[in-house]
Design a protein that fits this description.
Blueprint (H helix, E strand, L loop, with lengths): L1 E4 L5 H14 L11 H8 L5 E7 L2 E10 L8 E8 L8 H15 L4 E8 L3 H9 L3 E12 L3 E11 L1
Parallel strand pairs: 4-5
Antiparallel strand pairs: 1-2, 2-3, 3-4, 5-7, 6-7
Length: about 160
């Protein structure tokens, strides 16, 4: 699997990956009716570096990395990852996270923080914990899940 920096020509494939996840409304606190243009603008937003994972020339996932805070907090990064539905369970998220950890280290970040991991996203929680992330905070009933109603979200962190 190849993980590389995303380009404008990747926008349609990235939308095919992130669009269904946004529409499902089960893992990201984004407007489920977000337009394609708004979703791409968010994913490539100011201060973010965006990457894609490819297998056999097909984009199977995407992630962004950014400083989690400005100024005195810019040494901790934050990432968001999404995998296409047909690539789930094939190690794409793990490969992207490993890439992001290496990238973060090489660019001087001292830690990585996930600000909002939905408690029902057990696949992500299991993966992040296997990569030495710890739950360092819980926000009660922070996420309005379309199936489960109001559920908790976690803040996760690992040192680099």
């Amino acid at each position: 699997m190849l993980v590389r920096r995303a380009s404008k020509t990747d926008h349609p494939a990235i939308w095919r990956t992130i669009g269904p996840t946004i529409r499902a409304g089960e893992t990201y606190a984004l407007d489920r009716d977000m337009t394609e243009a708004d979703a791409i603008a968010y994913w490539f937003g100011e201060g973010r570096e965006t990457f894609v994972a490819e297998e056999d020339g097909e984009i199977t996932g995407t992630y962004y990395i950014r400083a989690n805070q400005a100024g005195a907090g810019k040494h901790i990064c934050n990432c968001g990852y999404m995998v296409s539905s047909d690539a789930t369970g094939r190690g794409v998220a793990r490969a992207m996270c490993l890439h992001s950890l290496d990238y973060a280290r090489r660019h001087g970040y001292r830690g990585m923080q996930f600000n909002f991991v939905v408690s029902s996203n057990t696949r992500a929680l299991k993966l992040w914990e296997s990569l030495d992330f710890e739950i360092v905070g819980r926000v009660p009933q922070a996420f309005d899940h379309p199936k489960f109603g109001y559920i908790d979200a976690f803040v996760m962190f690992r040192s680099l």
